[in-house]
Amino acid sequence: MKKIIRNILAALAIVLLGCMFPALTSSAASEPTIPDGVTVEGIALGGMTAQEAKDTLNGYVEQVKGQTLHLTAGEDTVVDIPFSQFGVDISDPGVIDTISQIGSGKNILARYKALRDVTNENAAYTLTFTCDRDALAGVLNERAGEVNREPQDAILVRHGGQLLITDEVIGRTLQPDATADQVAAAISGDWDQKDLTVAMTVEETQPEHTAQELSVVQDVLGTYSTSFAGSSYNRIENIKNGAAKIDETVLYPGEVFSFTEKVTPFTSDNGYYIAGGYASGRNVDSMGGGICQVSSTLYNTVLRSELTVVERTNHMMTVGYVPLGADATIAEPTIDFKFRNDYEYPVYIEAYTYNGSVTVTFYGKETRPSNRTVEFESVTEQTIAPGADVVTEDPTLPAGYEEVTQSAHTGYVASFYKLVYVDGVLESRELVNRSTYNAYPRYVIRGTYVPETEPPQTETQAPADTQAPADPAGTPADPAAVPSPDPSSGI
């Protein structure tokens, strides 16, 4: 009896469901389809057969797998990586089969529940994705060079009469593992399943000097020019080259400037020529001859800008392009010219040649009173006469020949003073340096060759021929023909 009642109730339920959802009692000859209202990631699957839904979803997954990861740093897209390179895929492949069977199962009650979910708007499904995190970290390691960069200080140059600043660049180093974790979390989370943009994890390194630091450089602190008119072509080229090598230098607070570090080595590969210079008290031709005119011009700008001189040496002999005491020589590697920026702000060095002169100008932030001026004075304390000529005798040159290979140089002891005026009134007179310039004699080559003198030639006469006395008869005397006396003759 109970069995009969259960059969009757089941039949009534089927009839009732058939009345409510005709699709449940459709002909077996018609292949079941997914009811309307079923969506996956916004894709409507209603009216599709299970296979059609499965194909549609698989196609969607392949589309997602074909997208690209865009890694950014700041506002820049730095690295693009296809999803295919790090195994992006659906996290549960079986979910496609499950979704494709909605409303088409053989269990009518299960089909009823699925249809009820559709009616209640509970049939909107989503797909979750995953990736091979380690594979992505490997790709990032290989491509880190596209991201990494060294920090760069801000740059200051003077062009067209204006000081121009280029902003600093922050250094960065890609962190592959942290970035891979970040991407994996984004892919497995809530995203639109199109191209994925993620800000990579980087370690930043700040530059040492910034544009803000350079922005205060606006004023002329000091300037000086010297003339090289009349110099040889090679010497002029050396001066131009030396000026170019110190041009556009920024000296930050506390830094020491070394002239030799900037301009050496003195080689042809470094732009230098052979020209006249001083060595061991003689005028000689040397590589880079004339470079000391640049260092001396720089020295005078340093003094007028009132930076701190650390190392300075005068020449062995006087030079004609600056007053006594106003020069600064160098000799690689033993003698250098150095100075330090003791201001609280950077100093920009400009050096150039124009119209037969070399000029060096310092720019910075002027903090000295406007009513204060600085001048310099050279005072000769002692004059030293050159010694006797240094004569080299040359026996291959004729006597009376004389050639001066180096002129005599007068020596000096000079004091160089700094004079400070306030409102035009001398406030102080400070000794800057005391310089000694050696006296050098004249160097001469004299010929000593005197040719030997030969004695005069005299003529000698040949002796006359000797003949026997003539015979009275005209016959030559012949001793053999004269008879000897006969002893027996008695005459």
From TrEMBL:
Domain G5 span(s) in chain numbering: 370-450
SMART domains, alphabetized: G5 (SM01208)
Signal peptide positions (record): 1-28
Classification via Pfam families: G5, PG_binding_4, VanW
Region described as Disordered: 451-491
Keywords linked to the UniProt accession: Signal
Listed Pro residues bias regions: 482-491
Ranges of biased composition (kind: Low complexity): 455-481
Protein name: Vancomycin resistance protein YoaR
Species, as recorded: Catenibacillus scindens
